[in-house]
Structure formats: C-alpha cells, structure tokens
Design goal:
The mean pLDDT is about 95. Helix content is about 45%, strand content about 15%. The protein is built from 15 helices and 13 strands. The chain starts with a strand and ends with a helix. It is α/β, with parallel strands linked by helices. The chain binds uridine-diphosphate-N-acetylglucosamine (UD1).
Length: about 350
C-alpha cells in the first residue's frame, strides 16, 4: 500500500513526524513525502525536519509565497503530475494550511482517497483563511482523524458520515511528548527567571498598521512587569519593518527551532500567542496561555486546559496577566487521547484500509 504525505508549512511538520514513524513499522506500507515548499526558509522548514527526525522529502514542489489563490493553485498544478506518477492509495494531509486544502482538492478530482489529520476543528470565523481550508478539506476527505470530541460533533453537524470519523487524539502532542526530555535538558543562556513568551503571526493581528501598533503597545506594557521574549514569524518581522514600528524593549528573535521553542515554553511564566498549536502545547504543559484572538478552533484548550481568550482587549490582557503573576493561573488538565500515541492509532486505521 502506498501512502503519500503532503506537508508545506511549519505547523505541519510536528504532525507528520509521528505518523511517518508509526507507519514505518508496518512492512507492507511504502511512504512518499511531498513538501509543497509553502515554507522554505531554513528556520521555518529545514531545521524542523532535522530536529523532528523527518526524512528529506521525496519531492519538493517549491511553490514559495504568494497570494492565497496563487499559492493554492500552484500547489495543485505541481502536485497533480506527482500524484499521477506515484499512484498513492491514500494521501494524508495535515492541519489547516493552504497546502492542506490544495492537496485535498487535487486528490478529490483524481479520485484519490484523502485522510485529514486534525479534522473537525472550527473557529466558526470565515474571515480566517484556515477556517475555509478546514471546511473544504473536511468535505473532501474520506478519512477524518479528529483530536477531540468537539471535532466529531462539528463534522457530524456538517453532514459527514460517522463511519469516516476517527477520534485519534492530538498528533502534535506525540512530537511534544517525544522531544520534551530533550527540551528539558536544553540549557538556555541569558534567560530571565520569569518571562512572557510571545508569538504573533495571524494576518488579522499583524497585517494592519494600527492593530499591530496597538498590540506592540500592549506588549510593551506587559514588559514593565515581565520580560517579553518574542520569536517572530517572517510575516510579523516584515510588517513591523514595513510600518516603521518600534518594538522597544521587546526581545524580538528570529523564528526558533522546535526544541528551542519548546524549551522556552516549559520555563515561561505565561505564553501570549495567536497560534493554534501553541494553545494546545501550553494546555498539555500546564503553562498559562493568553490567546490574542476573539475565537478559537480549539475550544478544549479553554474548557479543559490553560487557555484564555483575551483578543485585543488591553484591559483583559492586563488583568489575566496580573492573575497569573499572583499565582492564580487556571490549572487545567490534559484532554483525553493527548497521550503521545495518536500517530500509532492513525497508522492502525490506515493499515486497515488496505483493500
Ligand atoms: C501559514 C498558514 C498558517 C500557519 C502559519 C504557521 C495558511 C493560509 N496559513 O501562514 O495557518 O499558522 O503558516 O507559520 O496556509 N515567509 C517567509 N519565509 C517562509 C515562509 C513565509 O519569509 O519560509 C513570509 C513571506 O513573506 C510570506 C509570508 O511569510 O509571504 C506568509 O507566508 P504564508 O505561507 O503565506 O502564510 P503564513 O503566514 O506563514
């Protein structure tokens, strides 16, 4: 049986690694790894392959950056001949990035079965490009691997047949569990005892000058009580430079490799982010997370975990942070099936698909 995986952007890499490793243990499975090239900087891609132990991709489509239409279309056009040549029995796609939806569309048109890892998440906010990617990918997928019960419910409500839905848990947590000991052992120079770890890259937060300026002002206010360490996505760095904004005493770093970022997360007093995956990682780690968004497609991080939505409400950020600094952060617990074995459960289901 031929399984072809398609990844493209940074958050895909920690999700594909456990599935590749788990399928590797099944002798009758041949695997092909395709990188779309959506992310191409060493710091956004190569270093993740290295740290996660992912083999070099068999094919790199080298699509690079572009508008949504161009990037999505380029991936489809360049992927189609690969699919025709390699003839996979099943294609696995991950998360909610443009590479995910482009692949699902190309496969569906060719009649190739698609499995979506991290299916069913919904923010119910269609202004987010990722929400469009999730909705379309899940309509096209044949196997839908969900991380939590809310995912199953969302899919059933959208008319997806129950026998296509498999609740397997959170695959990104597999990578975290595996590399946590390495991250704990990592020595970090120049690290203050207490600090807020910040990441921001959502277009809604960083693409508008006034909004980004307001967020930087909020973070500068935070930095009066707590050091702020801010590894920043290329999009965010470009916008800060383009808008001529001054990050002042915020410690802006280049994007960090997976293990280094994990090492910073486990020691953080609080994490402030607009990322999806980091809401989940902090929930697993029990680290307080303040999410600068009005909604989340990962509600379990609020109902069970350590996540609080603060949006762009400066007063809410201030009061939630004060709570954390007083030692009153919400404790939270680890959701079911976030246990480091999701890749194995997915592999078992794939193997059973052999016709
Ligand atoms: C993409 C995903 C987003 C995910 C994020 C994680 C979509 C719609 N968005 O957003 O869900 O949370 O990845 O990082 O798929 N750039 C570089 N080097 C790179 C990649 C990007 O400099 O290696 C810069 C370019 O200026 C590019 C911009 O970042 O135009 C945005 O990249 P893109 O892949 O379009 O979206 P992300 O914001 O990274």
């Amino acid at each position: 049986m031929n399984v072809l995986h398609v990844v493209g952007a940074r958050p895909n890499f920690m999700k594909v690694a456990p599935v590749l490793a788990a399928l590797q243990r099944h002798k009758n499975i041949a695997q092909i790894l395709v990188h779309t090239g959506q992310h191409y900087d060493v710091s956004m891609s190569d270093i993740f392959f290295e740290q996660l132990g992912i083999p070099a991709p068999d094919v790199n489509l080298a699509v690079g950056s572009g508008s949504h239409a161009r990037q999505t279309a380029d991936i489809m056009v360049r992927l189609e001949p690969v699919l025709l040549e390699r003839k996979p029995d099943i294609v696995l796609v991950y998360g909610d990035v443009n590479s995910t939806v482009a692949t699902a569309l190309a496969c569906a048109k060719l009649g190739i079965r698609v499995g979506h890892v991290e299916a069913g998440l919904r923010s119910f906010d269609r202004t987010m490009p990722e929400e469009i990617n999730r909705l379309v990918t899940d309509q096209l997928a044949d196997l839908l691997f969900t991380p939590s019960e809310d995912g199953d419910r969302n899919l059933l409500r959208e008319g997806i047949a129950a026998d296509k839905i498999f609740r397997v848990g959170n695959v990104m947590i597999d990578s975290l569990v595996r590399l946590l000991p390495t991250a704990r052992a990592r020595k970090l120079a120049d690290l203050p005892d207490r600090y807020a770890l910040v990441t921001l890259h959502r277009p809604a937060n960083v693409d508008d000058c006034a909004i980004l300026r307001g967020i930087l002002e909020s973070l500068l206010e935070v930095s009066r009580d707590l050091n702020v360490i801010f590894p920043s996505h290329p999009r965010t760095r470009h916008r800060i430079a383009d808008f001529g904004l001054d990050p002042g005493q915020l410690r802006l770093l280049d994007p960090l490799p997976y293990i280094d970022f994990l090492a910073l997360q486990i020691r953080a007093t609080a994490v402030i982010t607009d990322s999806g995956g980091i809401q989940e990682e902090t929930t697993y780690l029990g680290i307080p997370c303040l999410t600068m968004r009005e909604n989340t497609e990962r509600p379990i991080t609020i109902s069970m975990g350590t996540n609080v939505l603060v949006g762009r409400d400066r007063e809410k950020l201030r009061s939630e942070l004060a709570n954390i600094l007083r030692g009153n952060a919400r404790k939270g617990s680890i959701p079911p099936l976030w246990d480091g074995r999701t890749g194995e459960r997915i592999a078992e289901i794939i193997v059973q698909q052999e016709r």
